[in-house]
Amino acid sequence: MSMFVESGSVTIPNRPRMSQNSTATYRDLVIFEERLRSNMTRLLKRKRKYEFLLAGLFISLIYFLYTVFVDPSKKFTVHLLNTVALLSIAGGLVFFYQSGLYSEKIVYAQKFVPHC
């Protein structure tokens, strides 16, 4: 294939033309890539937030297990408050796993991000 097209006595270089379709496709791919990046960063932030929540629940669960069973308070009201806090945190952990928050917010982000 010739790089030049002859038209009479004038030689015109044959330039590759970009069609409107390929320009629109490229623009759509750039937009798609940007959306993937923004979704990835949003999911990572959300995953980090819920991991901190889960870690906080486990730390407080361990603390209240210690205060209720290992070193109970001498005052009945303090011991009662520690017991209620222990039960509410244990219930929160059960709710966190049973409601699907763990699989939806943490596991899904771990599966989605490596694909990007």
Shape: rod-shaped
Strand order of the largest sheet: 1-2
- Spans where pLDDT lies below 50 across 5 or more residues: none
Proportion of helical residues: over 70%
Count of strand segments: 2
* Helix-strand sequence: EEHHH
Q: How many individual helices? A: 3
Report on the biggest sheet.
2 strands, antiparallel
What's the topology here?
Blueprint: E1 4-7, E2 10-13, H1 20-70, H2 76-98, H3 101-112
Antiparallel strand pairs: 1-2
Helix pairs in contact: 1-2, 1-3
Provide a quick synopsis of the model:
This protein is mainly alpha-helical. The chain is built from three helices and two strands.
Explain this structure.
- By secondary structure, the chain is mainly alpha-helical.
- The chain has helices at residues 20-70, 76-98, 101-112; strands at residues 4-7, 10-13.
- The chain has a two-stranded antiparallel ribbon with strand order 1-2.
- Helix 1 (20-70) runs antiparallel to helix 2 and helix 1 packs across helix 3.
- The chain is rod-shaped, with a radius of gyration of 31 Å.
Could you list some keywords that capture this structure?
two-stranded antiparallel sheet, 2 strands, 116 residues, mainly alpha, single chain, rod-shaped
